[in-house]
TrEMBL record:
This is Cytochrome P450. Heme binds at residue 222. Belongs to the cytochrome P450 family. The lineage of its organism: Eukaryota, Fungi, Dikarya, Basidiomycota, Agaricomycotina. PANTHER family: CYTOCHROME P450 MONOOXYGENASE ALNH-RELATED, P450, PUTATIVE (EUROFUNG)-RELATED-RELATED. InterPro entries: Cyt_P450, Cyt_P450_CS, Cyt_P450_E_grp-I, Cyt_P450_sf, Cytochrome_P450_fung.
Length: 295
């Protein structure tokens, strides 16, 4: 963000020494993780994964061992925290907007029923859950100022000159809370804004199928957006199918849905208490069966 800082020698810049230290730590971790895939392949265990593909195609792409480890590890780093932060904001929304939770429960009962947990095959038939994914990414300030980009040409915006090469941050919260696009109730968590009159998902923003700007802009827009949407969709469906999110007895006062706790590039909500209650007796057992299938 401040490119001139690179000219300050490390001995005067603790943050630079910290970054160098963490580069080594992360490199070791990513190399160790990818090493487990190398060992698996050597032992004849060939499970499909991005890591396995990168290792097997090394002679084509020519990346070094360290570059391969970072390419694969970066997916984990970029996708893990963003998705877990989204889940935290979503659980907060479930507590703060119980009507939304009740509507999602009703959709799951109608479409999936209570005899089995939802699967990916159900997602196309769960428009309210899919709308909830969009609304979570719109409403939650996960990466509040996006990732800095530089303008590629001289530009004018509302009377202001922006020279080529200017570093621009994006005020994601303001864009995602634009009343002209999303209506007056922008600060409410209301997935139904993404549903048309037939109850089907609509995007609200022409040309942006996700319907918000939380995945960034331009050529380096989040390449994991479909993975993120798929993960959140199945997570929301499975968690809501099996349980109800409640505030614990005795919790008082309004939930803080505005304050951001910055952690790395992402922003989490202030820690809050939550009680998770199975929605029906068989839910717990059925989810365990589901989990065992992946062991
Ligand atoms: C809720 C989930 C996610 C959010 C909100 C999110 C958001 C973002 C944002 C704002 C950027 C910067 C885009 C820009 O430069 O304008 C980005 C980049 C990136 N994301 Fe995501 N992301 C999410 C999930 C994921 C997942 C699951 C993966 C991988 C499977 C992933 C991989 C990446 C990578 C590799 C980049 C860097 C792309 C580049 O610089 O060329 N993200 N993401």
């Amino acid at each position: 963000m401040l490119p001139w800082l690179r000219y300050i020698p490390s001995r005067f810049a603790k943050w630079k020494r910290d970054a160098q230290y963490w580069f080594i730590q992360d490199s070791l971790m990513f190399q160790r993780l990818l090493g487990t895939v190398v060992d698996d392949l050597a032992n004849g265990v060939d499970r499909p994964s991005f890591g396995a593909t990168i290792i097997k195609t090394q002679s084509k792409h020519g990346l070094s061992e360290l570059e391969q480890a970072w390419l694969v590890g970066d997916m984990l780093a970029a996708g893990g925290e963003t998705t877990s932060i989204s889940l935290q904001w979503w659980i907060l929304a479930m507590l703060a907007f119980p009507n939304v939770q009740a509507r999602a429960h009703a959709e799951l009962d109608e479409v999936v029923g209570r005899g089995r947990p939802p699967s990916f095959a159900d997602i196309p038939f769960l428009p309210y859950i899919r709308a909830m994914v969009k609304e979570t990414l719109r409403w939650s300030p996960i990466v509040p100022f996006g990732v800095p980009h530089a303008s590629t040409v001289d530009d004018w915006y509302e009377g202001m000159f922006i020279p080529k090469g200017t570093i621009c941050l994006q005020n994601v919260r303001v864009l995602n809370f634009d009343t002209k696009v999303y209506g007056e109730n922008v600060s409410e968590f209301d997935p139904s804004r993404y549903l048309d009159e037939k109850g089907q998902v609509k995007t609200l923003m022409g040309g942006r199928e996700e319907g918000h700007v939380s995945f960034g802009f331009g050529r380096r827009m989040c390449p994991g957006k479909h993975v993120a949407e798929g993960t959140l969709g199945i997570d929301f469906a499975t968690l809501l199918w099996g349980m109800r999110f409640e505030r614990p007895e005795g919790s008082q006062g309004e939930l803080d849905v505005r304050t951001l706790v910055q952690s790395g590039p992402g922003a989490r909500p202030v820690p809050f208490e939550c009680k998770m209650v199975p929605r029906f007796t068989e839910a717990e057992a059925l989810l365990n069966v589901g989990l065992n299938m992946y062991e």
